[in-house]
Amino acid sequence: MKKIFLIFLFLLLITASNIASARDWKRLQIPGAKCGNGSEYSIFIDLKSPTALVIELMGGGACWSASTCYGPNLRTWMYPIPEVPAFSVLSSESPLANKWKNYSYIYFPYCTGDVYTGNHEASYFPLNRTYHYGARNIKLALEFLTKNKIIDFKNLNEVLFWGASAGAIGSLVHTKILDQYIKPTGVHKVVIADSAGLHFGQKFWNKFTPETYKDFEISFANIGLKIQKNDGLISKGLPKVFETLSDWQIGILQGTRDIVMSAVFGDISPEEQEKNILGPCGVEKIAENYSNVETWIKKTYMHTFLIIPESATLKSEKNESAIDFIFRVSGK
């Protein structure tokens, strides 16, 4: 499983050099925000429209120990991103993303190993601190952008908030945080979770420290999701999430046998994950009861679909491509 994840992480990193970006990115250092290794944290922005905005949360695994955060059993990346990475179809110059080319864009790099839920410091080595500041970084960034009048969130009419992998979980849990900054009515709000997993094994939570689990509890509670230490089938709590986010259009993409979210992180086999996803507690079945939720499900071992054009054009079991699904959910 380590080899599978390292291959995935390598492919994710080289994507930056293979997808050119047409955007005029500016780096903004966020005071008080940190990457996992303690380095200063920055976001990237491209300001175009004053009323339409895309926010992307970069993906890239998770960690819970010295070995998984820094090696040899590496599961994520804990250091600053040296330059803006066009890690996705939406943030690149791909023709597939033309519908958003005139939107302003905020890109949140991922370097905290906590799927954007962290708000504590850990000591995995003597005299060394690891900063699981994922949730804190997002809050600090939104405060900084608002205080310095870089983005007038109250002027927005359209918001697309999305992420893949770790960013998929992060985009869901921070919708209500973003709601604190935008107008209470009159905004077309869309959240897209590309391969969030959510159908994990019973032992899924055992790997995490008590502090990390507490961060998960707090972040998930923001959207009405209650987790249980002995049950990794997070999808059971989605009805409350969909009700809490009733004023958001929600799109969820998921491979049934997602090898990363099953065998690598989920403590469950790909085959067991598929049974969960397609079963009565699966996201597809639950979403049928909510008019604001759509799902895109493909029987595959693949992880994430909106990173590169080749996967964005793959079709689901209902013969709809991933990018067309996003167009439909977004009303494009």
What secondary-structure arrangement, pairings included, does this model have?
Blueprint: H1 2-18, E1 26-34, E2 40-46, E3 52-57, H2 66-70, E4 104-108, E5 120-125, E6 128-132, H3 134-147, E7 158-164, H4 166-173, H5 175-179, E8 188-194, H6 210-221, H7 238-244, E9 249-255, H8 259-264, H9 270-278, H10 283-287, E10 293-298, H11 309-312, H12 322-330
Parallel strand pairs: 3-4, 3-7, 7-8, 8-9, 9-10
Antiparallel strand pairs: 1-2, 2-4, 5-6
Structural account:
The structure is a single chain. With 332 residues, this protein is α/β, with parallel strands linked by helices. The chain has a single domain, classed as Rossmann fold. The protein has 12 helices and 10 strands. The protein has helices at residues 2-18, 66-70, 134-147, 166-173, 175-179, 210-221, 238-244, 259-264, 270-278, 283-287, 309-312, 322-330, and strands spanning 26-34, 40-46, 52-57, 104-108, 120-125, 128-132, 158-164, 188-194, 249-255, 293-298. The strands form 2 sheets. It has an 8-stranded mixed beta sheet, with helices on both faces. Strands 5-6 form a two-stranded antiparallel ribbon. The longest helix is centred in the N-terminal third of the chain and has 17 residues, at 2-18. The chain is globular. Residues 13-20 have low confidence and may be disordered.
